[in-house]
Every structure is written in structure tokens, then in C-alpha cells.
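From the pipeline queue, job 12 of 40. The input is one protein chain; the requested action is below.

Action: predict structure.
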Amino acid sequence: MLNEEPVHERDRMMVAMLKPLGIEKGKNLEPDARQKQILEQAAVVGEAMARAQSFAKRQKEAKMYPDAHWKNAILLEADQETEYHTALDERTAWFYEAVTLTAGMTSRTPGLGQVYLGIQKDKDGGWLQGGNNYTLRVPPNAPAKQFWAMTLYDTETRSFIDTKHDIAGLDSRKDLVKNDDGSVDLYFGPEAPKGKEKNWIPTAAGRGWFAYFRLYAPTEAYFDRSWKLPDLVHVK
């Protein structure tokens, strides 16, 4: 990948740390047995570090609500810089679980762009598991000029959750069943609850998952937190 991709100015310090490992642009990597063992161990530890930064964010600005597990999934600007440092941990977290970052995804102007709320745990603090059943009540009057969307991802692949139903998410443009107050109950699990098929997103037993709740063209109620998304509830 280093040979295929350009080295940007912000990458130069990282590339400098790769050079003593024998990873150098324009050259072949030919580790001996000892180096190979170290690099293989480092890959495991490195992924564990990235996974922790992605799925268990500790930055205070990550927490969306004081009493819920929803996190701000994107903690950096599109240029990946802050006033005094490069957003190293923040970009590690985001690019471990996702691919692209644009200015529209980090907009703080009501009515523009989109926002990403991430969830990995249920209300009781348990990691989301594909063999369990969960519910989420989306309150009425979601703060989105365009629409909202709930999408599930596999924690191992960070790609759309993969089931025989080929459904990875639902959004407010669908023909969802609404409650009398305008709220929407979503259901997650390996089997659809009877009569709730329209509001169900299937999961795969034995696979962990996480989700993004996106608001497209978010309105002021999102930014001032007057509209709050509750936690997922594990139906035991």
C-alpha cells in the first residue's frame, strides 16, 4: 500500500517510523524469521488498539448524552488537524471502522451535511450480539430536514451486516409502522418479531455488530440536544 499510495505531508512522521521496520517506499519488505514474528504480533496488538479507540471512545466530546451509550462517531475535521496537533487517535478510530471523510460529514451548520451517531452497547452496557433481540424507539420529530437512517455493521469486517435477508438498515423514507405519537420502534435480531417485519433489521447469531444512526441535514434540535435518541434495549 505504501508503494501504491502517495505520501502526503501529514504522513511523513508515520512513514519515518515505518522505515526502521524495513517498510520503505520503493523497496521490498524482506523480514527475517524474528522480524516476521514481531510484525505479526504487532498487527494483532495494533488492531486491538484501533478497535478500542473505535468502539470504546474515551474522549469527552464523543459522548452524545450523559445517560446513554450513543457516541459521536466522527471526532475530527476533514483535514484531520486541530489547532495544535494532528488528530491521530481520532483518525485511527474513524478509519478503522469507516472509509471516507468529507467536510459534509463534519458540518456544524443546521440543515447541511449529515451526522453520525454510533452505538456498540445496549442500555445495560452489554456489547451488541447478533444472537440477541433488541428494540430501539426513535422519538418523533427527528431533527433531520431530509431523513434519518439506521444501519448495522459487522464488528469484524466493519462492512454491512451480512445475512440471508440482504437487509443492513432502515430509514425514514421506508414504509415503517409508526406509533400514535409519531415515534418508530425498530427491532433487531435473528428472526423478525411477528407483525413487526417492516421495522425489523436482521442480525446474525455468533456475530457482533455496531450501528450508525445518521441524520441527513440535521436541524437545531440535534445540535442543542433537545432531541435525544435513547439506548437500545436488550429483550431477554
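Job complete. The radius of gyration is 20 Å.
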